[in-house]
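Weekly sync, protein design subgroup
Attendees: M.S., D.O., the rotation student, P.L. (late)

Item 1: inverse folding check
M.S. brought a backbone from last month's batch and wanted to see whether the design step gives back something sensible before we order anything. D.O. pointed out we never logged the input encoding, so this time it goes straight into the notes. Structure tokens as presented (214 positions):
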């Protein structure tokens, strides 16, 4: 089985998998008792309140970002996927106000360039993650402009972007994440292609695949 010991493993949407709802407090609690130490969460504004949700929620029952931060309390790194630029400054303000002791453990990430620009203009020290959908080398210029720390793309984009990523590794000092990678074999493939880490629905399975045989 492929070994991925040096690969960063980020739990997708809280890492609840099939057992817990995505982006839920239950998923986060479970993650805190697991062996992986990195978690990805989606955040958006709902009625001017920051909630954990990938899509626009249909009700007011979504967990609050502030409650998730209190629970995590610096025990895990957070890749915070900001779903729309209107939420960007509110997310940054909340982190600065309520999570400043663990500010460096948060990566402010987004597909929306404006969200990243707004945060960068607020704080040059902010760790940024550029989520990218394209199959081209434009992400190199964007990563340089924004001075990002992470670049994330769907694993299906990694293969067609292979030579673009090879060029990027020569020009950029960033970490590369592939999502959503749910098998140890695919994780090993992504590592061999130069990816620094993966975002996965199955973090425990990926971590378990790294255990030495007994």
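Designed sequence read out in the meeting:
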């Amino acid at each position: 089985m492929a070994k991925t010991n040096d690969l960063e493993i980020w739990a997708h949407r809280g890492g609840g998998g099939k057992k817990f709802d995505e982006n839920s407090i239950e998923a986060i609690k479970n993650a805190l008792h697991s062996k992986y130490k990195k978690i990805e969460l989606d955040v958006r504004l709902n009625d001017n309140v920051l909630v954990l949700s990938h899509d626009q929620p249909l009700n007011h029952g979504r967990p609050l970002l502030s409650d998730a931060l209190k629970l995590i309390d610096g025990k895990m790194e957070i890749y915070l996927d900001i779903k729309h630029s209107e939420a960007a400054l509110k997310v940054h303000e909340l982190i600065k106000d309520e999570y400043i002791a663990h500010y460096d453990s948060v990566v402010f990430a987004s597909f929306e360039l404006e969200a990243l620009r707004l945060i960068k203009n607020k704080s040059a020290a902010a760790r940024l993650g550029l989520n990218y959908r394209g199959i081209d080398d434009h992400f190199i210029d964007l990563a340089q402009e924004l001075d990002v720390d992470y670049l994330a793309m769907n694993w299906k984009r990694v293969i067609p972007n292979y030579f673009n990523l090879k060029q990027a590794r020569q020009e950029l000092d960033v970490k590369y994440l592939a999502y959503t990678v749910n098998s140890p074999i695919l994780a090993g493939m992504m590592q061999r292609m130069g990816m620094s880490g993966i975002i996965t629905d199955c973090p425990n399975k990926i971590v378990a695949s790294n255990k030495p045989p007994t």
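Discussion: The chain has nine helices and nine strands. The chain has one domain: 8-208.
Action: P.L. to compare against the previous round before Friday.
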